[in-house]
Amino acid sequence: MQTSELRQILSRFGEEVLYSKIHRMKNLLKIADFDEALYRELMLSLGYPRNKLQFLELSLLLPYREIKKLNTQPLIEKALLYRAGFVEDYSGLPPDFDISLRLEKTYWNYRSIRPVNFPDRRIKDFSHLLAETTQMGIYNYFKKQIEVNYTGIVEKSSAKMAVEKIMNFKRIGISRKREMFFNIILPFFLADDSFSKYHSFLLKLFEVHPPLDVNSKIKRFYTKVSSMINREKVEISNVKEYFGAMKYVEG
Fold this sequence. Notes:
This is DUF2851 domain-containing protein. The chain is mainly α.
């Protein structure tokens, strides 16, 4: 197989992955409003790889409309940790906060998960972002972030800078924030027809932004193609090819 042929395959697969994500977001928006839909998807992403269902259930037990009423980061963190079953203290929470609604601590998976990715740690970190969004809503928060960081000329360095500025919030590492952007934020706003003015900008970011961090699937991809093509000639060059490579090893 020629390098050019493989790149065409990766590009096609990358587009298929993106439009599958967009389709998922469009379906979600049929049953939830913009804030709740985006909140659920971000919460779901926090559960990767072993606690996705748990985080989704937590987002339903403590929906975004209740998050907005809590307003401050300490209260948001306490409410999430309580509903998740990680703490017993609910002092300071509103009188109408239903203390009977919560998960069991034993419901969460810790096996083969690094301490930095423990679910309670991720909840604490994510509460800081949620606190930043309570005034305008999480949808409008990211909508504004994309709008103010729009640029008409997009190449690798400017794409990387734009994503860092869009995802400029505290406590979550840059690698994780990039994953959240390309897996959740970008397809979500591409699914939003009212945001079509910025769709070409978002698509360009997908096409030229440098690839995300190497994971197990990307390692498998390089192993798989090394016998066919010299690895140096097929180094993944952007996010589109990155997602295409992950689909390639799944096929």
